[in-house]
Structures are given as C-alpha cells and as structure tokens.
User: Fold this.
Amino acid sequence: MRPKLKFLDQALIERIVSEALDLLATLGLEVQNGNAAALLGDHGAGVDIAKGRVTLPESLVLDAVKKAPSGFELFDVLGNRTHDLSGDNVHFTPGSSGISVLDSETGTMRTPVTGDFVRFTKLTSRLPHIDAASTAFICSDVPEQIQDSYRLFLCLLYGEKPVVTGAFTIESYRLMRDLQIAVRGSADALAMKPLTIFSVCPTAPLKWSDVTAQNLLDCAADSVPVEFISMPLTGFMGPVTLVGSLVQHTAETLSGVVLSQLANPGTPVLYGGSPAAFDMRYETTPMGAVETQMIDCAYSEIGKHLGMPTQAYIGLSDSKALDAQAGLETSMGATLAALAGINSISGPGMLDFESCISCEKLVVDHEICAMAKRMEQGIEPKDDFPARPHFEEMLEEGHLLISDHTRKHLRSEHYFPGPVIERANLSRWREEGSTTLDERARTEVSRHLSEYEPSRLNEDARRELTRLMTTEAARYGMDELPARDGD
Assistant:
C-alpha cells in the first residue's frame, strides 16, 4: 500500500474552491496584458477597462478545469520519456532562478557565472534521483536581456534531462522556444514530446502582469507545459491563516488555468505554487517553515481534487550553509511532498529562501530524494508468506545473509545511499578519515564531475543551439559567448 498524507477533508476542499470561485466572479483579477484581457472578454468574462479588472464567471472557470489534462509526459533531449506527471507519481528537480551560488572553496555565497552553471548542470545530469534539470540560477557574465535563454541553452547543451525553466521577459520566450525546436527538429515534434516546463507566476494578490500573462499565452499556443506559481504570503500578501491563503492560491491558480485553456484547450499544466508563511519578525519568506510545507501539500490536494497534476517548491532550506537546518528543512519537505503525491517537486540544492544554489547540497539532497522515493513505494509482501520457512532457514544457518530470499529482494527492498551518507561504525569512520558531511559532499561533487560524460545530443542540434544563442547575444553587444569549462 502506498502511504498517503492528507491535510484537508473533502468538505473543506469544496468550500475553499467555492470561495475562490466567488472571489474570481466578484472581485476578479487585475490583468495588465491586453491580449489576455481581450481573450477573457471574448469568452464571457467581465472586463472593466477603467479599473483594469476582469471577473470570471464560475461556468467559465469550471469549463476550463474540465479541459485541463489530468496529466502529461516529459521527454529528454534524445526523445526518451522521463516523466509521467499524473496520479501520485513523484519527480524531483532542483530549485530555480537563484541569484547566488554557495562557493565550495570559501563556503560563502557569491554571484554566479557561466562556469558555475555548467558545473551544476553536469552534476545534475549524473544524479539519477534528480529527474529533471532546471535553470537553477542566473549567470552574471552575459547581458541581462539573454539571461533567461542562456540558462536554457546551457541546460540543453550539457545535459539530457528535461528542464524546468521560465522567462522574465516577453522577448525571451521566442528564442527559448526555438532552442527547444533545435533539439526536437520541429514545432510539431516539440508539442508531441515536451522538453520543458515553464513557470508562470501570478502576482499576489489576484494579478497577472503583462510579461507573465504573455508568457502563459505563448506557451499555450505552442503546447509547452506550464506550472502556475501562485505565491501568497501569510499575513502580508495573503490572509494570515492557512485556509485563507489556500483560498487565494486557488483563485490565482484557477485564473491561470482559464487563460491557458482558452488559449489552447488541453494544453498541459501543473497546479503548482511557491507560497510562504511570512515571518514578520524578520520580514522573510521561509520555505522551510512547517506552515509553508503544509500549504504546499494542501493545495496539491486541491489540485488533484480538480483533476490536475501538481507541483510545489518544497524540499529546500532557508539556511545559509550545508548544515543541520538545511538537512531537517529539506528532508521534512521532501518527505511530506512524496507522501502527498506532489508530481513535480522543485527545491533540491537550494538555500536561502529560494535564492542560492549549492552543488554540495544537491548531492546530499539527491540522497534525500532517493529515500523519499523509496518511502512512497510503501510496504508490500515479497515472497514473505508463508513465513515459517525463512525462520527455519535462519535457525539452521544462523543468518539469512546469502539466502535465496535475501539475494532476490535485497536491492529492491532496501535503498543503499552513496558515500555522502555515513553508515560505517565508529572505528571504520575514524580509519577512513573521520570525514564530515561537507567534506564527503565536496568529494562526491568532484567525483561526479570527473566522471561526467557529454550529452549525446546530435552535433547538428548542438551547432544550431550555439548559432541561435550566439546570434541573440550579438544583438546585445556580446560578440562571443563566455568561455565554458572543458570546451
């Protein structure tokens, strides 16, 4: 039996959805994008041009919910299926859009450059329980206008996994689409085998900016999957109660579902988010707070009730170092997310309120993800009945170390972590150097990078990726792309 976590009963879910529908039909949304407002108006929404607000009739919202698919698949750069985002299937991806990296040599945070991104992408490609890559942080050594597309370019060039990404400008999307087409070969092939998920973020409270709304419409037109990232902050940009924040999250997310399904019925979406329990003492948004994690799991229940696959920024830490706080917040979040059956879990490798990425933390978090995946498989009998013969053998032999039953089920029943997790006894640990977690993590990062094998993406696609990126960089005064380690 698969273990399952629930925070909401059916009656509460239905009341939250009902209240969200009322908000959309009465208070409505601020929609700053003319194309989005016109699309909504053409399908029966109330558009108040003077106030810049749009109200959504309940029937319009519920019709969009019916059109949204109950799941979709992702494929790697070679066209192999990697994700089944449906049911309670769980997949992990690193956190995204950080502005700093934790330097492994100094232990301090600094501004990232291209070499850092290449290193992180190579590492991600080596970790089997990190299911997708992400445009994890912003490279400071390229013009601001190409930072979105440049991160995706590096992911596609150095890794084979699908990518969770997003754009901060309207103009960036077109090149990011073309980069994906360069890998797939055609727009139709990309629609058939999605390669990325784009994050689109409504602004709290109840607003769609010009950029984000247009990104959403553009993704829908090309059948590029999106994840809605609603971000109510309890007691600040959202009600202080968890239920109140869930009402706001539901309303903002459903408004995105309406836009996507009006633009292209059936376009794949993830019912996601990145809410936070705002800490008024420090004016921070702790992603490791238990209330943040509870909201994440609860809105996933609402998304599943509405028939959509889900996503959350969970399984990360607010700590500034690879320490006990990082471990407890990340492991608690990843465990809850797996038990809740969140389909796409974004967060491994991330520190400092979604702003810093660490390679060393990623290899530790990889083990957390693997353990969470083992746990969500649950406990099932495996040739355990009748039980008596196993105990008779143990009494006769004195152990079951080499029994047929042990050899058959050892690897499938037990997850054995890599060397970053210490399981030796005290004397052996001392003999092997009395290493700390941080030391083992740095060693493991170095090992993975030394054993990295280049992506098997064909050479024609690689050349086209480079041509597209170089041409775009030249538009903003960069004659050649930054040097990339190993090239």
Q: What stands out?
A: Residues 242-263 form the longest helix (22 residues). The mean pLDDT is 97.
